[in-house]
Amino acid sequence: MKKLFFSVILALVLIVSGLTAVAAYEGHVVDVKAHVENAIAVNTNDFDFGTAFPQQLREGDIYVGVTESFTAQNLVYSTVTYKLYWEPKPAEGEICNPVVIDNADYYQNIYPYVALKIDGTDQAAPFTTVFGLQAGSGDLSSPDDECDTIHFKFLAPVFEGFVYPSTDPGDISGVISANNYCLEPETICGTYAVMVPHIDLGNNLIIQVTGFGLHVN
Amino acid sequence: MTKGQLIFAILALILMVTMVPAVLAFEGHTVDVTAQETIPATKVARLATADEISYAKTTLGVDIPTSGNPVGVTQWDYVPSNTCIAWVVTIGLMNPLDYQMNGVTVADQFNEHLGIAVLDVSQGTVNITPPYQLSGWYAGNLAPGDNACLNLIVWTRCEGSELDCQQQFTTPGVYNLNYSGINMTWYDGQPVPVLQSYLYGGPPLTITVYDPLVAP
User: Fold this and answer.
1) Is residue A74 a contact partner of residue A210, using CB atoms and an 8 Å limit?
2) Does B8 touch chain A (CB under 8 A)?
3) CB under 8 Å to A35, separation ≥6 — which residues?
4) Which end of chain A has fewer CB atoms < 10 Å from its terminal CB, N or C?
């Protein structure tokens, strides 16, 4: 019985090792590689308007351009289209008057008070799409339009309950209430921040490449 | 439809489903867009104490037609008509910027039925154009994070002739103690100073004036 047992074990070992040997009779290696490069580059990943007072206007630019890798790819593709999306910005450390979503702190939205222009073209007010809150769109092409300027115009919101400076003392109709804040005939109209003397505002602006155009000779 | 066409259609469908997410996820860049909003000035009111009224009358020589607020008046923003009421309005300044504010000046205008006078000031000099205009608080310089404070005594005036004046406010209603909000100017800390200004609209110091013969 013992002899039979050892025979079975031996047979099993032979089969297993044999299989391995068969599987390794011959091998060919094919290197599958790809060199992944970004098509566009953004000159910054941080844009801070700094300390602003209610009704103060702050402006600034960031730049989006095609990368050297893109221009050096023998122009298989010559255009890049991109879209801008606003996303909630998680708080980093302690911030003033955060919005709490699922037990996490987020900045109060800044986008209702920001108007965007891409290369001088006004972008429509943000609108909801299945991919997020779209804030604008643009395209770049090589070699004619390799850089876009995204211009930010931030009008610091007034605080609810405050009074317009020109309000007559006997007339409190100018007291600012929700949803009547629109100081400029532009896209910057919106509701208020909360009635507090200090607030941190923020959002992530996502610049998403959405397509490439083929080079046409 | 033949079997071949069916397989082709299914393959095309699978290809579409897998390609759509791929196309939408080419590449993304994130830019953090932030701002810190604050106000460089605050204005709050409270009822003046009898000691403060006495100090204003005797030491500062201010002609306030009362020696103290009525006993039943306990809320600064809910006061009887035809009664002299005195408040202390505190204007607070702070520098939230990262540079020194130089030559800070504050102007403000109160309701025309009020009188104002300086009770005390933490720094600088104050000009008042009687009876109700703070024409200039020259607060000097404010380093980043520094504060300054001005306390004004504010009262309802008796308007008309000395013998037959009408104690304001004569009509019940809702009024603002301040007229136009704070107008604050300063110079920045650049090598060549640039005038900065800020018109501060609120919050309003709103009071409700009731008829003492009707309301408590």
Assistant:
1) no
2) no
3) none
4) C
**B-chain residues within 8 Å CB-CB of A38?**
27
From A49-63, A115-129, A155-169, B144-158, the region with the lowest mean pLDDT: A155-169
Residue count of chain A = 217
Q: Provide the sign of the torsion angle of the four alpha carbons B64, B65, B67, B72, taken in this order.
A: negative
Among candidate residues A212, A87, A76, A73, the one with its CA nearest the CA of residue B24: A212
Q: Centre a 10 Å sphere on the Cβ of residue B125 and count the other Cβ atoms it contains.
A: 11
List the helix and strand counts (H, then E) for chain A.
2, 12
Residues of A whose CB is below 8 A from B33: 47-49, 89, 110-111, 114, 152, 202-205
Contact check, Cβ <8 Å, B33/A56: no
pLDDT tens figures, A54-98: 777 889 999 999 998 888 877 678 899 999 999 999 998 888 778
Here the ipTM equals 0.73
Q: Is the peptide bond before A54 cis (omega within 30 degrees of 0)?
A: no
Of A43, A83, A120, A61, nearest to A207 (Cα)?
A83
pTM: 0.68
* Single-letter residue type at B105: T
Among candidates A116, A134, A139, A130, which has minimal Cα distance to A211?
Answer: A139
